[in-house]
Amino acid sequence: MWKKKTITSTAIQVEYTYPNNLNSIEQVSIPQQTLPNHEEKFEPISQITVKKEENGYECEVVPNAIYEPQDLLGAAFDNADLTARVLQPVAASSNDIVLYRRTDATEMPHQMKTTEVSLSVRIANAEMKEALVKYISTDLMPPMWLDSQGFQKFAQRLLNIGATYGKLEIGQIMPDVATVTERLSQQARYARSQIQETIQCDNPAQFAVSVETWRNDVGQQYATITIHYIAENFVLKKYRLDSIQAEDETVEVQIRNILDAYNLGQPKCITVEPCHEHCYTTSDSILCSVALLNGVASSVFESEADYLPAKLFLSCNIILAHAQNSERAIKYRSYLPSYEKRSDWASKCQFLSAVANAWDTLLGISGEVDGLPTLMLEVDVTQLRCVISVLQPFQDALGLLSIQNEPTLHFVVPIVRKLETHLQPSSDDNDDIKHIKSQLLNHFMKVKDKLLSKMACCALFFDPSKKSLRITDDNDREIARDTIFTEMRLIDSELCLEMPLEKIKKFDLEEFSDFDHTFKDPVTAEFERYIYFQISQQGEGLTTSVLEWWKNNKINFPRLAQLAHAYLAIPTIANPSAYGESILERRRFLDSESTSDILILNASAHIGGS
After folding, report:
1. CA 383 vs CA 276, 309, 391: distances in Å
2. Is the pLDDT assigned to residue 247 strictly greater than 60?
3. What is the spatial distance between Cα 118 and Cα 157, in angstroms, rounded to a whole number?
4. pLDDT digit string (tens) for 374-407?
5. Whether the predicted model's global pTM rises above the 0.90 cut
6. Which of 191, 349, 356, 581 is deepest in the core (most CB within 10 A)?
7. Which pLDDT value is given to residue 19?
């Protein structure tokens, strides 16, 4: 499905089209009237500089120009001289300028091929050229990033210039959605590699100081654009993506897909599809749930720099780095929190909590550390504690799904419902907290359907205290019960050791006394017994685990007990489940640390969001 927007002027009509499924991309689609027909593979990018001379404008083409990472728009300007990049130098003339909203790269800058969105402007006369150069060099003040709204204004201004000074023709090359997605991935990886090469450090404290220095050197404008790249790059590249290794190829692919989506700042797009029959997919479903919840919450720290949680995290990290690197603060180090070498959101949430708890200590040394008082003013400790309170339920949720708690799939639905309620804004929330909750809820609702899968709803049915499925929607409840009832009929009755069936009372009327069956259908009888079974009948409640309860009651519900163990198999991945089934033999040889990393993207991964 494609949305359309139209901008019309006396010079030209521009139609904006963009796909619904790419929230971060809005592309300009214009008929290619003025651009040559390009093949799929483009020539290496070159640089063209247009300079104003006495006799007009001179065009200088520089083949294979080196790409500057700071040059986000694809154009660098110096003293009103316009530098732009063209796809094919042979097709360039003094009346052609090609501007870029974004660019992509492969491994090396000089190997760049084309752009995600390119805008070709053909200029009719010198007055138009002068107006265009003045607008771009003075008003835009590049290099800068144009978001979708800014890019539309930019295109509208070009049209206005065309209407004022003569005909302005605009042409564009737009790749398909799959190509755009791949190029975004390449762009993110390349940007991170450039940043990592720029910042040389061996520990997180040095990294924070290096980030601040680098931001000052480059300038606040560009730093604001790339801060969500910088804040994550060190731990992502050095301690997670390159360190995860799994003997099972499928698991490794899943994990890397999750991390790739996380790196791109698109955790809401994460999908992990089960690859076995339902009785062996509990592990995959838990992994999927953890990844989705982790993605919803981690996007808090993947957002722009002016967004409150990211600012708090970075400011606290910089403050701590100053304190820990100060020789005069050595005596205070034992009281200060440490930032672990991880990028999971839980470490960040714990780090923020530790900073809040150590606030008095930090204030105590603020006068002894150069530059610290100014940084302290950037952090509102009250806001810090409010953000922590918003993130805490996500941390608790993933704590339940951590490997140490032997999670079973029936946890997922109650967790989802609780988090959904928690994210509803209240009258006590200030504007910043309401904004955070709104963004979290927005991401959360996009993955809610995946979290509330049919398998998760069926698993909830096997929790005796929640078998009514009241916390699910009517449609989900009906589907879950129908699915379980159908699967019960597929179980071989000869293998079931069950209680005697209840007799059906006969009617007194003779015409109704001829029955084909004198007993209830055994499957229906077992299903109804479980529905109306009172836990208090045995006086035990649910003091034991759900799996233990089914072990003790399998004689009462033999078919349901088999399904319960299938749906509630403990997803420790490397170890056999409580039902005795190993998810995959090869996963047994993973050590406990690797197992934890694979299952929840880190041994203590919790959630925290955008």
Report:
1. 46, 9, 12
2. no
3. 16
4. 555 556 677 777 877 887 787 777 677 665 566 6
5. no
6. 349
7. 32
What φ, ψ does residue 99 adopt, rounded to 5°?
Answer: -110, 155
Taking only the tens place, the pLDDT of each residue in 298-326 is 555 554 434 566 666 656 666 665 555 55
Amino acid sitting at position 223: A
Which residue bears the tokens 């107006």?
A: 131
Q: What value does the mean pLDDT of the chain take?
A: 52
All residues at 6 or more sequence positions from 321 whose CB lies less than 8 Å from its CB, including other chains: 204, 205, 206, 207, 208, 209
Count of Cβ atoms closer than 10 Å to residue 128 Cβ: 21
Q: What is the 3-state secondary structure (H, E, C) of 218-244?
A: HCHHHHHHHHHHHHHHHHHHHHHHCCC
Write down the number of H helices and E strands in the chain: 20, 10
DSSP reduced 3-state for 83: strand
pLDDT tens-digit profile of 532-590? 887 754 444 455 678 788 888 888 888 888 888 777 765 433 334 434 444 444 344 44
Q: How far apart are CA 529 and CA 525, in angstroms?
A: 6
Q: What tokens does 566 get?
A: 């299938």
Spatial separation of the C-alpha atoms in residues 442 and 108, rounded to whole Å: 37
Q: Are strands 13-19 and 28-29 parallel, antiparallel or unpaired?
A: antiparallel
Question: pLDDT tens across 30-55, in order?
Answer: 222 232 333 322 232 333 344 445 54
Cα 316–Cα 321–Cα 322 angle in degrees, nearest 5 = 100
**pLDDT, tens digit, for every residue of 493-524?**
555 555 554 555 554 444 444 444 444 678 88
Q: Delimit the domains of the chain by residue range.
A: 2-173, 199-262+274-365+380-462+570-610, 469-504+514-567
20 class by beta-carbon count within 10 Å (0-12 exposed, 13-18 middle, 19+ buried): exposed
With the CA atoms of 28, 31, 35 and 36 taken in that order, what torsion angle do they form, in degrees rounded to the nearest 10? 130
| Residue 267 contacts residue 294 (beta carbons within 8 Å) | yes
d(Cα 515, Cα 519) in Å, to the nearest integer? 10
Cis peptide before 558 (omega within 30 of 0): no
The count of C-alpha atoms lying within 13 angstroms of the C-alpha of 164, restricted to the half-sphere facing its C-beta, is 13
Output 385 or 5, whichever has higher pLDDT. Answer: 385
Query: SS3 for 62?
Result: strand
Sequence-separated (6 or more) residues with CB below 8 Å from residue 337:
320, 351, 354, 355, 357, 358
Distance CA 259, CA 242 (A): 11
Of 188, 345, 343, 346, which Cα lies nearest the Cα of 260? 188
Q: What pLDDT is attached to residue 365?
A: 58
Whether the Cβ atoms of residue 28 and residue 119 lie closer than 8 Å to each other = yes
Q: How far apart are CA 554 and CA 546, in angstroms?
A: 12
CA 342 to chain CA centroid, Å, is 16
| Sequential DSSP letters for 451-462 | HT-HHHHHHHHT
Distance CA 174, CA 100 (A): 12
